[in-house]
Amino acid sequence: MSFATPWLLALAALAAPVVIGYLSRRRDVRRTVSSALLYRAIQTDEVAARRAVSRPQHLVSLALVLVALAALVIGIAGPRLGGGDARTTIVVIDHSASMAARSNDGADGSTRLDRATDELAALARGMSPSDRVALVGAGRDAAVLVAPTRDHGAVVDAARGLQAGGPGRSAADALALADALCAGDDRAVIVLLSDGVGFEAPATRCPVRYVRIGDPARNVGISAFSVREADGFGLAEVYLAVSSSYEDARSLDVSLSVDGALFEVLSVDVPGGGDADRLVRLALPAGAVLTAAIADAGDALPDDDTAHAAVHTGHAVRVLLITARPKSFAAEALALHRRVALEQAAPGSALPAGPFDLIVLEDPHPGELPPAPRVLALGVAPEQFGLAPGTPITDRRIIRWEYADPLLHFVDLEGVHIDEGRYLAVGDGARSLIDTPAGSVAVATTWGDRELVLTGFRVDDSDVALRVAFPNLIANAVEWSASESKGEDPAHAELLAGNVLSASESRAGVVGELGGTATVGAPAPWRAPVAPWRLLVLVAVGLLLIEWLLPAVASVSRWRRA
Amino acid sequence: MRIDRSIFGAFDGLRLGMPGKASGLRQGDRRSPYRGRGVEFADYRPYDPGDDMRLIDWNVYARLETVLVRLFHEDRNLTVAIYVDASASMAFGEPRKIDHAGELAACLALIGLRGRDSVTVASFGAAGVPRRATGHNFGAFPALLRTLESVEPDARGDARSQLASLVGHTRADRAVLLSDMLVEDAERESLLRALAAAGRRPVLMHVLSSDELAPDLSAGSRLVDAETGEELLIRDGKAALRAYQDALAAWVAALERRCVELGVQYVPAHTTVAARALALGNLRKGRLVESAYGGVA
C-alpha cells in the first residue's frame, strides 16, 4: 500500500496529545446535590477515580478515539492499494459541433462541451497528485492538447479553452492518438467524454471508458450543401439536404445568399426524425461564397443552421520547385497538373523572379526565397525555417493523419513506410498533420508571413511516391495555393473548411453505448470513483464528534437541569 | 416557594382525618373529650352548688328525689400544625421539593380550614427566624398561603432548635412534618422526637425527588452537598446505581421503623406524584384526610 501524500502521515503525531489528554482527563463532573448522605454508599477511592483511564470503559473510549484518529490520518494521506505506480488517464474530449448542443428545456444554458469539461474537472479532483493525465481533443481535427502531466489544472484549463465546432470526423483519430499515448502502460485508461455522435471506436490496446455526455435534443440542420456550374451560361446547381430530430414534420425556409446578399429562399419540408433534400438550378449573382441559412430554427444546435459553399472557377497557379534531383517525383506530379505553371531551380542557383503562388522545396536553398504565400517543404531540415531540430524517426508506422485538412483530402497514408526522417516538434501555432506513435512527421505552421507545410521525411525516403496518395497530395497543394491566387478573402477558407455537419451530428442525438468501450454511469454522468478511504474519514470524524460532543451535551443538559 | 392554586378545587368535601378526639379550644364539629354545652347528651352527675339550674333534670328528681345535672358532649375543632422543611436540600428536584411540600401543606391547610380547624403552618431549617401563621377559618387561608409562598430554601439553619421552638408553642392534634429528612442520624432523631412531641397524631410526610430516587450515575461525578459542602467522588455505572438504590431502600426502611417506634405515621410524599394526586390518594389511604360526608368516596 502506498500513499498519495505520505507526509500527511505525520498527523499521526496528534495521537500523543490525545493520549496525554486522556491520561490527564479528569472524569469527575462537579455536581451539587441535595445531600451527600445517600451517596456515601457508592463513593469510591478518590485517587483512583481522578483519572479517566481508571475505568475500563474510558480505556475503550481511548482505543476508539485512537482508531478513529488512525483512520482519519490514513484517509487524509490517501492510501492506494496495489502498488505505488501512478495511473495514467488519457482523456479524449469531443469538441465537435454536436457538443455545442444545449438542452431543449432551457433549464441549463450549458452546452455538452461545458458538461464534458465539468466531468473532466470532477475526474481530475478524484485523482491523486501523482496520477498523470493527458488531453486529446476530437473536433475539427484530432490533436494532443496536453501531453501526459501531473498538472491536472492545466488539463482542465485546456479543456475549458476549447470551442465546439466543425464536423466530428476526427473521433477515431483522437482515440488512435490516445491509444498511442497510453501504449506500454498496462494501467493506463482512456476516458472518452463525448455524446458519441460520429464515433466509431477503433480497436485499442487500452481500455476505453465512454462517458456519455448530454441528452438527445431536438434539432434541424443542414447536412449537405454544395454548388457547381450547371452549364456554360451562368447557371449553377445547388444541392441542399436538411436533417431533423423533431418528432413532427416541419416546413422550413432556407435562405440563400451570395457574399451576404440574400437572393433566394427555398422551402424544405422535413419529415419528423428524417431528412429532406432539394436540388435547384439557379442563376447565381457574382460572388465567392454561397450561404444557406435556416430561418428561426430555435433548436439545440445553432452551428448547423448555416452552411457555406465556395463558388469558384479554376485559375492558373505559379509554382517554383527547388530540387537538386534531375528526376523528381514532385516535379513530375506538378508538371502533369494542367493548372500549374511550373518553374524549377537548383538549390543555390539564381531563382526566377516572383511572386509565386507556391514554393516546393525538396532541398534547402541557402539564399532568400522569392515572394510566395505558401511553402511546401518535403524533408528539408526544420532549422532552415527556424524550427527545433527533430530526433531521428524510430517508429516508422503512420497512425494518424488529417483527413479534413485540405492538403490531405483523398490522401491515404495507411501502410506508408518511411525509411529515414526526423520527428518534428509541434510548436505554438503549429498543428500536426501526420503522426507516428512517437511523434509528428508533418506539421502545418507559419514561417514569417508565409504558410509552411513541412514533412520530416523526403519523398525519396519513403514509398509514398509510389502510391496514388502522392499525386493527390500535390493536387491538394495546388488547390491550397490556388485559393490565394483566386483573390479570396482568407476568412473564406476558414468559413468553408468543413462547415457542413453530417446528418448524424445535426440530429444532436446521443449514442448510449459505443462498441469496444465500457459505458460508465449511463444515463447518469460518469463520476470519479469515490475512494472508500474518504468514507473512512467521514466515519472517523463522526466517531470523534460523538466521543467529544456527547459528554459536552450531557454536561450542558445537567447544567440546565441544575 | 411556588404553589399551584388550580389544585385547590379538588378538595371540596374533604376534611382532615383524626382517629381520636379533637382538643381544640374553639367550638367545632368534632367530638372532644370535654363535657359542656352541646346538643348530644353524655351523662349525669350530682348537682353541685353553683351549677346552672337549667341543667337539672327535673324528671329524674321527680321520680328519684335526687338532684342530677345533665352533661353534654362539647364539639371542638382540631388543632393542626404543619411544619415545612425549608433547608437548602429542599431546593432540589423537578419540581422542587420545597414547592411540592408547599402545595401539600396548602392542601392540608385548605382542607383543615374548610372544616373550621385551627391550622398553623410554619417553616424551619432555613437561615433566620422561622415563618409561622395560624388560621381558624377559611378566611385565613390567603394569609397562610402568603406565608408559605414567602418561604424559600436557604442556607442551612439550625433545624433542630427551630422545630423545637415551634413545637413549644402548642401541642396540636395533628402535627405534620414535610421534609426530605436528609440530615445526619443524630439530627434526624432529634427532629423525629420533636415531631412525636408536637402532636397527638404526628405524621411525617417524606418528600424525595426523582433525582434522589433514581439518580443519573452514567458519568463519574464529584458531588457536593448543598448544605454541608461535603465532597464525594462516586462510582458510575449500573452497579453503582444498584448500590445506591439498595442504600436508599435501607435508609428509608430504617426511617419508617423509627417512625413506628416513636408513634409517628410515615407517609411517602415524593415529587414523582403530584400534590393533588397525593392528597386524593396516599393521604386518603393514610386517613390523613377523609370525606366530610362519611364513607370512602
What report would you give on this structure?
Chain A has 562 residues and is α/β, with parallel strands linked by helices. In chain A, 24% of the residues lie in helices and 26% in strands. Chain A has an eight-stranded mixed β-sheet with strand order 17-16-18-19-23-22-21-20. In chain A, strands 6-5-4-7-8-24 form a six-stranded mixed β-sheet, with helices on both faces. In chain A, strands 12-11-14-15 form a four-stranded antiparallel β-sheet, with helices on one face. In chain A, β4 (88-94), α4 and β5 (132-138) form a beta-alpha-beta unit. In chain A, α1 runs antiparallel to α3 (56-77), α3 runs antiparallel to α11 and α4 (112-125) packs antiparallel against α5 (152-160). In chain B, α4 packs parallel to α5 (185-198). Chain B has 297 residues and is α/β, with parallel strands linked by helices. In chain B, α2 links the parallel β4 (79-85) and β5. Chain B starts with 13 loop residues before the first strand and ends in a 6-residue tail after the last strand. Chain B contains nine helices and twelve strands. The model of chain B has no long low-confidence stretch (mean pLDDT 84). In chain B, the strands form four sheets. A six-stranded mixed β-sheet of chain B has the order 6-5-4-7-8-11, sandwiched between helices. In chain B, strands 1-12 form a two-stranded antiparallel sheet. In chain B, strands 2-3 form a two-stranded antiparallel ribbon. The A-B interface holds A 27-46, 49-50, 55, 57, 551, 554, 558, 561 and B 88-94, 97, 180, 182-184, 209, 211-212, 215-228, 230-237, 240, 243-244, 246-248, 251.
Q: In percent, how helical is the residue content of chain B?
A: 25-40%
Distance between the termini of chain B: 31 Å
Content of β-strand of chain A: 25-35%
Rounded Rg of chain A? 34 Å
Secondary structure class of chain B reads alpha/beta
List segments of chain A where confidence is low: pLDDT < 50 over at least 5 consecutive residues. 46-53, 521-530
Uncertain regions spanning at least 5 consecutive residues of chain B: none
Terminal CA distance of chain A: 53 Å
By DSSP, the count of extended strands of chain B is 12
- Share of β-strand residues of chain B: 25-35%
